[in-house]
Design a protein that fits this description.
Elements: E1 33-34, E2 37-38, E3 71-77, E4 102-105, E5 122-124, E6 132-133
Parallel strand pairs: 3-6
Antiparallel strand pairs: 1-2, 3-4, 4-5
Length: 140
Amino acid sequence: MAARGKLSDKIYPWGDTIDGSFANYNGSGDNYEIGSLPLKTPISHYNGSQTPTGGNRANAYGLYDVVGNVSEWVFDFYDVGWYRDEGAALTDPRGPDAVTYRVIRGGSWGSTTSLLGVANRDFGKPSSKSYSGFRCVRSK
């Protein structure tokens, strides 16, 4: 929900298209990209001053970098068949009670654009400082 930024049925937080002025990913061509893979960009880099030039890429909630840069390790536990389970919650599904892995979303600086969509769901443990991180949130 946070990554979608009030948009539904869109691939990315801002719509259905992406290029290097939207997010940091493998092949984005931003000014932090060196060699075959880009480096992480500073937080809020996509505020309109990025290279290649682009507009302010904050989503409707004012969040930057919810896709690309680093994958986000989220609260939900991962189960490959969770969304197919008839008993699964449709609103704020948290996954099973406890398993080995947590859900990872958003793709990282080493990801292709196909892994950056807000609906893309992977799994893992926070083991690589280069590829994954987490976002702290609080309710109003």
